[in-house]
Specification:
The longest helix has 15 residues. By secondary structure, the protein is of the alpha/beta class. It has one domain. The radius of gyration is 19 Å and the shape is globular. An 8-stranded mixed beta sheet has the order 1-9-10-6-2-3-5-4. Strands 7-8 form a two-stranded antiparallel ribbon. Helix 3 crosses helix 6 and helix 10 packs across helix 11.
Length: 275
Amino acid sequence: MDDATEVTEVSDGARLTAALTALGVRPGDVLLVHASLRTVGPVAGGARGVLAALRRAAGPEGTVVVPSFTPENSDTSPHYRARVRGLDAGAVEAVRASMEPYDPSLTPAPSMGALAEAVRTAAGAGRSAHPQTSFAALGPGAGRLLAGHRPDCHLGEDSPLARLYEADARILLLGTGYATCTAFHLGEYRAPGPPRRAYRCVVAPGGVRRWWEYEDVALDDGDFAALGAAFEEAAAEGDVRAGRVGAAECRLLRLRAAVDFAALWLTEHRRRPLG
């Protein structure tokens, strides 16, 4: 792993841009960003100020990508199970009836954080079509990265993660840990014989609201913190850069290296029982 850099004070956009540059963000980068702005500390302009700093650090040819997931419109998500826990049948049905279908131009992503919302709502931003695991992006590469997100492929070969892999993108963990590293899910798809399960969410093809059920890989991020620690321990030079931005410990990772390592690590550590 590269030597850590340290930037400890962030209060305005110029300082944040300098901190990101010191961490290793370069002009022209394609960045998949996970951010905890509370951990970073106060920045002038809040989430929009952070987005502006990211765009300055990546330059006019760079592209910023964020997960803009919507578990709120699914009744098979952990978010839903937590929401209806302890409710009676009538209250559960009322919750289901209130769930809005996914609209890429309108549906918010409240569980993804303030930066994701800043990207999603920025002028010129695009968003992929998956009703559960969409991505939003801003920059010249957005259209290519977001295109063709098949609705029955959350985070596999027909998702923006595979396009980010092809683009040799980098992952910026801005005050978050490896447990949030969405790119590891592409490793789940690339491990042999991943388990699958049913998912269900609200959609509105042709403007008609309905529930849609489909099958896909059974996503599991429960061991991503351990996977990330192993990746960092084994990382080749340049695959991981670590440093502080404001009050936050941050990581800048090569996405290809992270996904390749994840596919091998998950194959070894998620052995399924015989029979």
